[in-house]
Amino acid sequence: MPVEINIKNIPTGYQSFISNGRHAVLGDEPKNAKGTDLGFSPVEFLLAGISMCKVATIRNVARRKGWEIGNVDANLTQVVTRGKGGAMTTRVESAIFIAGDITEEQRAKLIKEADNCYVTRMVRGDWEFPDSVVLDSVPETVETV
After folding, report:
1. How far apart, in whole angstroms, are the C-alpha atoms of residue 75 and residue 106?
2. What is the pLDDT of residues 72-84, one digit of tens each?
3. N or C: which end of the chain has fewer CB within 10 A?
4. Closest CA to 4 of 139, 126, 129, 121
5. Which of the residues in the chain have pLDDT under 70?
6. Does the predicted model carry a pTM greater than 0.70?
7. What is the pLDDT of residue 136?
8. How is 115-136 classified by DSSP, letter by letter?
9. Is 21 in contact with 30 (CB distance < 8 Å)?
10. How far apart (Å, rounded) are the C-alpha atoms in residues 119 and 109?
11. Helices and strands (DSSP H and E) totals, the chain
12. Hey, what domains does the chain have and what are their CATH numbers?
């Protein structure tokens, strides 16, 4: 199913109102990048999507298997390095805590499933970025929060 995001960037800092038509969030850049630091940066949104998918996958698998778990907490970090010719390599590390009375084997299974969640598989896959086209009118679905 295609996913659509609409965004309205305003002249203050890099504030961007981001909407999927049902929910809206504010994105921005940190102050050291001349933003106002009032919302997640683009990289933070990307990591948030990966981490949300990981913890939701753990919850989904535990429910399907009937395993009682409590909170699932994750911490993700990313570091980008530039190689020869300016090519970028991104390393994403994650640490996950799963509360609950489960065995170490169950915990390992849940973390393995999390590491293979659909967003991680999507990011690891091939991406195509055709050139952007001119938008003739402003979508009505982008509203400020």
Report:
1. 20
2. 999 999 999 998 8
3. N
4. 139
5. 139-145
6. yes
7. 87
8. TT-HHHHHHHS----PPP---S
9. no
10. 18
11. 3, 5
12. 6-124 (3.30.300.20)
